[in-house]
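agent: user wants the structure for Class I SAM-dependent methyltransferase from Neoaquamicrobium microcysteis. delegating to structure tool.
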Amino acid sequence: MASAHPPIPLQEAFWNRWAVEAIGKGNEEISLRQARVITGWLRELGASDLDILEVGCGAGWFCPQLRPFGQVTGTDLSARQIDGAQQRFPDCRFVAGDFMSLELERERYDVVVTLEVLAHVADQPGFVARIAELLKPGGLLMLATQNRPVLERHNRISPPGAGQIRRWVDAEELRSLLIPRFDVIELKSVTPRANRGPMRLVNSRLLNRPVRALLGDRFEEFKERLGLGWTLMALARKRVG
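agent: tool returned. relaying tokens verbatim.
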């Protein structure tokens, strides 16, 4: 029977191309907000000796921000990106290959971080199970993924490229993926963004300027609480036993 998803070499070729084409495309706000949420969660732990795994680290840009909290290992399907990351960030360890089959030690990691990877894996329940396998009992998953209703209803998104898997989830779907193995501590949306329909006006920087001057960040936080953020972020603890 033919595979329902692109073979791994085709997926790797897509992400190698994406790494080049993504330069300067302007999603920095989304990525930086995800990073602030993750580092905020880590600061709350008050630890600097954690064993941290970042799954789907791409060019490795976030790994140095994780380093103050402990030892960091980054993985990505793209060997090209991993080679560059290891050269730029020698204080972290990097491993290239398919996360689902990489030889990584079971129950080694205190924290697994993964940013916008879930939507691009063929077997989402298996991906979550694999993360749980690598976490210590009581270890933490810190995950960011695209918020399907916001992307589908309020944004124009180019169709998937050759070799790209795209399976966005909504908040309840994400919760359902996590609860077989994790206790969900926090699940929220962040970074409201829209480029079509009425939400484009609601999120307009120009129109929001007087509202922001009056309310500060409270208007953005209100939209996030309504689930209007581009990103879903989950903090979850692996169950013990």
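agent: one observation worth passing along. The chain has a mean pLDDT of 88.
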